[in-house]
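Anyone up for a design puzzle?
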């Protein structure tokens, strides 16, 4: 149980109070008494406003539910529906044409194009791996994944046949990205290369060569003494790609943070990154290894000038959205404080360690703190975030718009009003992106009463999703994000399926997006190749001349009109969703793991977080509501899939089986509630139930 300190009318977990006061404020020479007094005043000001915004979400949802109920059995009238959405304030009038005014943005965000990692803040080792993924070995990425179309490596150490195939593929990439004036890199024997474009050779690091293409660096590591380099005619030991330009350190969908203990760990890791002293030790191969942040990389330009390139990703921190509260701080009435407000204050104060030069390295050379704000519904909620960040800047003595914001376009009311949302944060916005899974979960929940939805797998080809993805880029460019902010795309969820990723994910830069999410540092290295194949900024110039797709397709509700699924189809869909829910929830509730590679129903490992859980639980809740399936069929599917998930986790000594005692399993009961109480969950979110059950497990 937490112990609380009373301060200015609020109660603060004593451990959190001590951490912030001693580790965050003291090195910044900020007056702690004033900080906590200002913090209490900020809560008093913003909590009531935030609550009213959440009430508006509920009010709009109730009106939409009633509208659909009143038209049950009638053909869907798109024009009438759109007029109704304007009448209730769900849709707002588009702002007059404008361009964002954001300043002091690092080039990795504003003027470069490359992969983006998202990493759970609670895992120090993963956080370090992600931050260090700015540079990745193409040799390693090819050798260890199925991205290379060659025979798998033979067991028992290094496989020279596989290695030769790796070198061949890497040099073919060099021929495409940084071609020689004559011949192939396969025939290069050393020295200063004669390039087709001599300007692409931008530096050296010892004997190694630094090249540049489409704004991204490539380092050809020359080391004839290396086990790989000794057999290469030019002594090439590796090809390093500049890969994860940016990383989002996540305090939201990929973590299970339900109390002060969890939040302190998240804030501690964020502080370690800002100070540059975060380390993680772990056993491997009978030894204890220690991981730390990579240093910057020193080079010499062709004219003899020394210069340095960053060794790490530029880091964002993703705060919690407006909905959830946390017992780390209690308000005067005893209720929990909004977690998003806690994050805004504490992560910004921690970010000041970087701004003030207190760390070993610099995160933002432009002098900004980068916060991603998820799950905002419409422009009023974006304006609330803008005002909150204004107040945090005033509280911490920061210049206006030092705190930048990334707006996640993952809720239907935000997608439908995206230009107005951008306008609400127009002087601090540095990021918009699309998130298919959360967006689909909100699509289902918003139109829950309209009828039965199409199957989950069919959502990817529905009218609204195509419009959503295209409008995101088109509106972002119309609002002047090009050269000032990222336009991003969503996650490739299958970390073991890199060949498929290489075939499909090139579609993201082709849309004009200058970043997209990848599930691992290895995937970042491979996805970086797509940004060499596609000149994103040239692609944007083509897109900018095209009209933004209209709103109508975005509002097409993905109803399964006229579908006559067989019992086998229904059972397969129930099993697929039930297995996905249980596989994720059991780790979240029982072990506090918010993101991991979870085997799907076909035993393919997928990176799962709460967004995937939201869509699966809402899909089953929708079918249950509209009689596509019965409660008995859902329960039967959950029990069948509990046994499957138990078997998939049989090798985990910390795992608690569900199928043998579903009534006694908090995880199983949480999964069941997510379906059977799915209709009544706010916006279809999974957090309230997950937090409640995780807190039960921790209390027990």
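Challenge accepted. My sequence:
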């Amino acid at each position: 149980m937490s112990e609380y300190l009373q301060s200015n009318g609020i109660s603060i977990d004593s451990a959190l109070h001590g951490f912030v006061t001693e580790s965050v404020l003291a090195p910044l020479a900020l007056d702690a008494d004033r900080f906590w007094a200002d913090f209490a005043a900020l809560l008093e000001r913003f909590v009531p406003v935030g609550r009213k915004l959440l009430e508006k979400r509920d009010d709009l949802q109730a009106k939409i539910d009633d509208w659909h109920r009143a038209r049950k059995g009638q053909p869907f009238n798109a024009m009438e529906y759109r007029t109704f959405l304007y009448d209730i304030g769900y849709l707002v009038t588009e702002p007059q044409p404008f361009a964002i005014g954001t300043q002091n943005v690092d080039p990795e965000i504003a003027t470069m194009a490359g992969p983006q990692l998202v990493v759970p803040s609670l895992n120090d080792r993963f956080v370090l791996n992600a931050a260090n993924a700015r540079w990745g070995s193409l040799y390693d990425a090819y050798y260890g994944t199925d991205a290379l179309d060659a025979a798998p490596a033979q067991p028992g150490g290094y496989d020279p046949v596989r290695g030769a195939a790796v070198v061949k593929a890497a040099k073919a990439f060099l021929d495409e990205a940084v071609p020689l004036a004559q011949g192939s890199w396969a025939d290069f024997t050393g020295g200063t290369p004669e390039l087709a474009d001599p300007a692409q050779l931008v530096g050296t690091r010892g004997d190694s060569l630094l090249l540049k293409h489409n704004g991204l660096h490539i380092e050809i590591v020359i080391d004839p003494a290396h086990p790989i380099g000794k057999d290469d005619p030019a002594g090439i030991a590796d090809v390093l790609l500049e890969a994860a330009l940016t990383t989002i350190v996540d305090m939201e969908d990929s973590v299970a943070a339900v109390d002060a203990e969890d939040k302190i760990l998240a804030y501690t890791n964020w502080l370690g990154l800002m100070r540059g002293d975060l380390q993680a030790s772990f056993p491997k191969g009978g030894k204890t290894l220690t991981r730390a942040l990579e240093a910057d990389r020193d080079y010499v330009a062709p004219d003899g000038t020394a210069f340095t390139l960053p060794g790490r990703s530029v880091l964002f921190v993703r705060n919690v959205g407006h909905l959830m509260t946390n017992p780390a701080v209690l308000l005067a009435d005893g209720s929990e404080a909004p977690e998003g407000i806690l994050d805004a204050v504490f992560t910004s104060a921690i970010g000041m360690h970087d701004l003030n030069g207190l760390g070993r390295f610099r995160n933002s050379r432009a002098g900004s703190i980068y916060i991603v704000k998820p799950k905002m519904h419409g422009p009023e909620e974006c304006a609330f975030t803008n005002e909150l960040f204004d107040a945090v800047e005033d509280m911490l003595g920061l210049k206006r718009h030092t705190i930048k914001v990334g707006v996640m376009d993952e809720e239907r009311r935000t997608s439908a009003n995206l230009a107005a949302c951008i306008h609400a944060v127009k002087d601090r916005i540095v990021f918009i992106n699309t998130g298919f899974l959360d967006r689909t979960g909100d699509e289902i929940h918003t139109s829950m009463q309209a009828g039965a939805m199409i199957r989950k797998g069919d959502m990817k080809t529905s009218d609204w999703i195509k419009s959503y993805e295209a409008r995101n880029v088109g509106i972002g460019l119309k609002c002047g994000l090009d050269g000032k902010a990222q336009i991003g795309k969503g996650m490739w969820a299958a970390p073991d399926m890199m060949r498929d990723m290489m075939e499909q994910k090139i579609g993201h830069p082709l849309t004009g997006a200058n970043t997209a999410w990848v599930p691992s540092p290895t995937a970042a290295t491979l996805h970086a190749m797509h940004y060499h194949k596609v000149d994103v900024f040239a692609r944007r110039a083509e897109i900018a001349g095209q009209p933004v797709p209209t709103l109508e397709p975005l509002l097409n509700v993905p109803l399964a009109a006229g579908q006559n699924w067989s019992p086998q189809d229904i059972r397969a869909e129930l099993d697929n969703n039930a297995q996905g829910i249980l596989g994720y929830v059991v780790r979240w509730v029982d072990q506090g793991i918010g993101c991991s590679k979870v085997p799907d129903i076909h035993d393919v490992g997928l990176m799962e977080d709460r967004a995937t859980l939201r869509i699966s639980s809402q899909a089953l809740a929708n079918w249950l509501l509209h009689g596509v399936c019965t409660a008995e069929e859902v329960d039967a599917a959950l029990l069948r899939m509990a046994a499957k998930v138990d078997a998939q986790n049989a090798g985990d000594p910390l795992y608690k089986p569900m199928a043998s005692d579903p009534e006694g399993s908090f995880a199983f009961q949480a999964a069941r509630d997510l379906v059977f109480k799915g209709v009544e969950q706010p916006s279809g979110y999974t957090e309230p139930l997950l937090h409640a059950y995780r807190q039960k497990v921790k209390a027990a």
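A detail worth pointing out: The chain has a mean pLDDT of 97.
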